[in-house]
Amino acid sequence: MQWVVIVVILVVVIAFIALTVKVVPQQRVGVVERLGKFNRLLSPGLNILIPVIDQVRIYHDLRIQQANVPPQTVITKDNVQVQIDSIIFYQVVNPEQATYGISDYVYGVRNISTATMRQIIGKLELDETLSGREKISNEIRIALDEATEKWGVRIERVEVIDIQPPTDIQEAMDKQMKAERNKRAIVLEAEAAKQDMILRAEGDKQSKILKAEGDKEARIREAEGLRQAQELEALGQAKAIEAVAAAEKQRIELIRSAGLDEAVLAYRSFEALEEVAKGPANKVFIPSNAVETLGSLGALGELFKDKKA
């Protein structure tokens, strides 16, 4: 019996502690009601309550949460049914309003998102719907922000995950897409051929220009070389003439300085005629002035004497 009393006391103590001490994790907050009326919020850490009088009605997670919106079938402006999947990211910023402003804010956010989506898509045609995900997401977020402001919930982001048109529309779009791709491929191929022809023509033009410039440069260099060669040859001839003239001048000056007169020169000519006379010729022509000079010297007779002998 004593053990039973002890166990009952322990249970009462544990229950008392459980009702008095509340440990709240980080990024969570509890809403405390005292006798059924909002009293205060429990912040992260250790909190003390008055048992039985104070009660924690709900805990809110202050981190960003996500809510998937079930796929919705909506009709576009041009009467095409499309199925849209979306997801909403939200955050509780006022736990008191999130507790007492609406019974289920997640359910409310989904309903408002669905209604807003129908209104937006009803103003858009199919092509605008398929290409306007960002626009649709922004308009849904703005509409949700206005509605959830009183609920203590802030909409962080709305993402349209998928927009699925009907099967026949999808097949027609696939065919159109293939036709567009084929058309683009043909255009690109023609453009590539055009560029190829242009580049080849440009290359041929550049090649001809370079060849003409090369021929021109070669002819210029050849003419320049010929001119320089002629100039060098003329210069060499001029120097040779100057050298011959200088030698002749020196020779004349040496003769003059040696005192050679006309008689000596005639005698030297006679010596040369003597050598000629030793040859097979029967006649020897002698300049008249040489004859006169040699005759006076008596040498001419000796010459012909030897010839007769």
What does this structure look like?
Residues 19-177 form the Band domain. This is Paraslipin. There is one protein chain. With 309 residues, the chain is an alpha+beta fold. 62% of the residues lie in helices and 21% in strands. Helix 3 (105-122) packs across helix 5. The model has no long low-confidence stretch (mean pLDDT 85).
Give a summary of the structure in a few sentences.
It contains nine helices and eight strands. With 309 residues, it is of the alpha+beta class. It has a three-stranded antiparallel beta sheet. It has a three-stranded antiparallel beta sheet with strand order 6-7-8.
Helical content stands at 55-70%
Task: Give me the secondary-structure category.
Answer: alpha+beta
Q: Rough shape?
A: elongated
Mean pLDDT over the residues = 85
Cα distance spanning the termini: 196 Å
Radius of gyration from the CA trace? 64 Å
> What's the helix count?
9
- Number of DSSP-assigned strands: 8
Protein name: Paraslipin
Pfam families: Band_7
